[in-house]
């Protein structure tokens, strides 16, 4: 099928339609005196422009494939485990200590056509001492929670992107764990690096500095990304929620 020929024919028909419509519209408004029924010509003119725009949008434009680049849709599941084998009932840490975690990241295609030649993967964990799981009252609307969750993902992605840029630029950070003053007070973050594998599963470990957290239950947030062979950065769609952990009383207290 010759798409170029079809485009020329449709363009000719569009011009013919526009000229005929304009001449008919001009003839209909020629006998209207000034100030009499002036709304009708305006409505006809708007309808004329609407019809032209609709027909233009239906023209079969043929554009090269390289004009558009559809981003692959990849997702990931993050599973967190307490590095302390004595904690069998869940992830917990004594007050005043850092939380040692073992991470298992599993990435997968969300869409069948998605394809990335992954080189490296990164993940950021975050927790805030100001947002205890026990503080959730259920009085906030779902729309508010969605906005809050989206803003949190954007913030984590910004931190993760900065860490990746420093890592790829061979710039060693003085500290991988740092406190960041954001909307939530006393948020701590930790970063992990994964090696790409054919199995789609990677393992890593990190320390989350919750030494100043009061006793209670908290929930970790996370965000992951991958870098392809060309150095392009892709965020991974989180396919599961963060994991809860608790800060218990220290045996020394």
Automatic annotation (TrEMBL):
Q: Where is the Integrator complex subunit 7-like C-terminal domain?
A: 75-248
Q: What is the protein's name according to its record?
A: Integrator complex subunit 7-like C-terminal domain-containing protein
> Pfam family of this protein, just one?
INTS7_C_plants
Choose one Gene Ontology CC annotation of this protein and give it: integrator complex
Q: Which organism is it from?
A: Oryza glaberrima
From the record, give the transmembrane residue ranges: none
Q: Name one GO biological process term.
A: snRNA 3'-end processing
**Superkingdom assignment:** Eukaryota
From the UniProt annotation, give the residues forming the signal peptide: none
